[in-house]
Write a structure and sequence with these properties.
Structural class: mainly alpha
Radius of gyration: 30 Å
Number of domains: 2
Shape: flat
Number of helices: 5
Protein name: YiaAB two helix domain protein
Oligomer: single chain
Strand content: 5-15%
GO cellular component, one term: plasma membrane
Organism: Sporosarcina newyorkensis 2681
Keywords: Membrane, Transmembrane, Transmembrane helix
């Protein structure tokens, strides 16, 4: 139990056996100035935290979104490659699935760039735009057909490869978009 004695000069005396913590600073038994303590409280609100948010430019993605998309890409590709490394299949099959992953990642980034260029008014030929779409569709079809016809892979493994492939492609598109948005925001500034 604490006994507080208020004085006319705005200070008080607190009797206690323990060390008191007033606004984060250790104070033992003794007098405390209420005005000083109130000033400390307001000073804490005025202090600028060096870890406060950094000003982002218009159109620039947040650091959290950049990190999350890069993490998704690394997780997707790593999981796919780790599963491929541990798979019980012949080397030519592993090479086929590896080539499809690389082809899918490249075609998805190429398509994202073509779509973005067209949106921003940068000239893109219809042939390149069409080839970008065709390449991504072919990569997805090759993956689907390869998994469908793989008799040595159990259904759960097929689902794993399919999901890791889709995650990797989606994350590659997002990382490419983030790079492009960041570059555009820096050019505007």
């Amino acid at each position: 139990m604490h006994r507080i004695i208020y004085r006319a000069d705005g200070t008080f005396h607190k009797h206690c056996r323990f060390i008191h913590f007033w606004l984060g600073s250790a104070k033992t038994e003794g007098e405390h100035s209420m005005t000083t303590d109130n000033e400390n409280l307001f000073d804490k609100e005025k202090r600028i935290d060096p870890k406060r948010k950094v000003e982002r430019k218009d159109g620039e993605p947040t650091s959290a979104f950049k990190g999350a998309s890069l993490a998704a890409l690394l997780i997707g590709v790593s999981a796919y490659l780790l599963g491929l490394y541990n798979a019980v299949m012949e080397l030519n099959e592993k090479g086929y699935y590896f080539a499809i992953l690389i082809f899918g990642l490249y075609s998805s980034v190429s398509l994202q760039k073509a779509v973005r260029d067209k949106e921003e008014g940068i000239p893109v030929t219809n042939i390149y735009y069409g080839i970008s779409w065709l390449a991504l569709i072919i990569a997805i079809l090759l993956m689907a057909i390869g998994l469908y016809n793989a008799g040595s892979i159990v259904l759960s493994e097929k689902g794993f490869y399919g999901m890791a492939f889709v995650l990797s492609i989606f994350a590659a598109i997002t990382v490419q978009k983030n790079v492009r948005d960041t570059q555009k925001a820096k050019e505007i500034d």
